[in-house]
Amino acid sequence: MNSSQNLVKELTCVRCPLGCKVRIEYTKDLEVIDVSGNRCPRGREYAIQEISDPHRILVTSVKVKNGKYPLASVKTTDSIPLRLFEEAMKVIEKMEVEAPVKRGDIIIKNFLESGVDLIVTRSVERL
Length: 127
Ligand code: SF4
What we know:
Blueprint lengths: L6 E6 L8 E6 L5 E5 L4 H12 L2 E2 L2 E7 L5 E6 L3 E2 L3 H10 L1 E3 L7 E3 L9 E3 L7
Parallel strand pairs: 5-8
Antiparallel strand pairs: 1-2, 2-3, 4-7, 5-6, 6-10, 9-10
The structure holds iron/sulfur cluster (SF4).
Iron/sulfur cluster binds next to helix 1.
């Protein structure tokens, strides 16, 4: 079925390195009409999530106190809902961690109850 009132989104599935081009057709009420192009069920799940509650990995930096550099790069260990990004950035902007911090250190566990941690991606030594 393909109605001109339906919406269509073409996405690249990021759930594995194959990067299937997935096409999803849906109504404005987010009822899924058709998903194609995915080589496995995870592509369908990904496409549905993208139209209803898209997720991304958050990559930013956090202030460091007494460090060789004033900032340390951080990222979430997995994607979190885009709708949490604004709140996440407010929390991160207010934070200051004490040097040293090492790559892989968990800065916040279960960040905003997303089930995902915020970790350091660049070590900063103490001054
Ligand atoms: S649809 Fe399946 S096979 Fe294709 S990129 Fe996504 S996870 Fe990989």
